[in-house]
Amino acid sequence: MQQGDTLYGIALKNNVDYKKLAEWNGITDPSSIKLGQKISLSTPISDSQPILFALPQQPIATAIEPGIDSSDFATSAANINKLKTSPKALKLPFSEQNVARLQYPANNNLPSASQSFTASPAATANTKIETAPQPESPRSDMLASHSVAEWIWPTTGKLLSFFSKNSKGVKISGQAGQPILASAAGEVVYSGHGLRGYGNLIIIKHNNIFLSAYAHNSRLLVKEGDAVAGGQKIAEMGNTDTDMTQLHFEIRKHGKPVDPLEYLPNQS
Questions:
Q1: CA 101/CA 111 separation, integer angstroms
Q2: Are 15 and 255 a contacting pair, CB within 8 Å?
Q3: I want to staple 27 with a disulfide (CB 3.0 to 4.6 A). Which of 22, 39, 141, 240 is the partner?
Q4: Cα separation of 230 and 247, whole Å?
Q5: What DSSP assignment string belongs to 172-208?
Q6: Distance of CA 28 to the CA centre of its chain
Q7: What SS3 state is found at 146?
Q8: What is the rounded distance in angstroms from the CA atom of residue 203 to the CA atom of residue 154?
């Protein structure tokens, strides 16, 4: 990290979702990162410890070999050994002992359905138990999108350039000092001059999906942590880090730039 860097600014510059960036680096408070801290920009290599997913308790399925009368099992304990445990019916915690059991099943008897398996302290220490990941509801993304339904233009002026993979947003011309407005309600998560090429920059977080960015301002009128309403004046147009007076405006969805014209109302 360098002077002026923030988690949101780093995410914006590298086109990644700030939530993923925080997760990759074990950051719970985006404001807690410090000067000189190393930030990983990709998914970290998983450690050597195996991960077991906690599965719902289910009865273990058994199969009786053909030709054996099922009534024999009620009267003869010796025939219990003829039961076969279904391969998918039992999941063992990771340990050297259990690996050996799976590699050499002929020399070991797996626990029966009536037995409960208790992991050894060593196995517990070397094993992570996590809840099996649940698929995200497609409705959650849709609801979050609807919560920013009232996007407005951040300023008035002529479009100087349209969205592309290189531009990442749109450029709007105007006069020095012209008001720059929050395009939707949200929280200011960055206000400063730390990202090269953006000049005086403001980033607003609208929800867990959308961010918007306002660059090249002459004055910044809000600070990090401020709650802003849609249409509130947050800055004044300028030409910092550019050769002409303009506003560079971006909308980011899950950290990726999207075309603002798909969200802004049609200009009359």
A1: 11
A2: yes
A3: 22
A4: 17
A5: EE--TT-EEE-SSSEEEEEEES-STTT-EEEEEE-SS
A6: 12
A7: helix
A8: 13
Structure tokens at 142: 């849709």
Instruction: Please report where in the chains the tokens 């995410």 appear, as a residue.
Output: 11
Q: What is the pTM of this model?
A: 0.55
In angstroms, rounded to a whole number, what is the distance separating the alpha carbons of residues 6 and 189?
9
Residue 200 and residue 219: Cα distance in Å, rounded?
A: 7
Under DSSP, the state recorded for 92 is P
Nearest to 246 by CA among 131, 129, 141, 161: 161
Burial class (CB in 10 A: 0-12, 13-18, 19+), 207: middle
H or E segment to which residue 218 belongs: strand 210-220
262-265, long-range: CB within 8 Å, 24+ apart, which pairs? 263/148, 263/151, 264/151, 264/152, 264/153, 264/183, 265/151, 265/152, 265/153
Which tokens belong to 113?
């359905």
Question: What one-letter code names the amino acid at 147?
Answer: S
pLDDT digits (tens, 9 = 90+) for 18-45: 777 777 777 777 666 767 677 777 776 5
Strands 200-205 and 186-192: antiparallel
Asked whether the beta carbons of 15 and 257 are under 8 A apart, the reply is yes
Least confident of 108-117, 123-132, 237-246: 108-117
Look-up of token digits 């609807």? 146
Smallest CA-to-CA distance from 247 within 190, 167, 188 is with: 167
Main-chain dihedrals φ then ψ at residue 11, nearest 5 degrees: -65, -45
pLDDT classification of 241: cutoffs 50, 70, 90: very high
Phi then psi for residue 257, to 5 deg, are -65, 135
% of the chain beyond a pLDDT of 90: 41
Tell me which residue has tokens 């050499």: 104
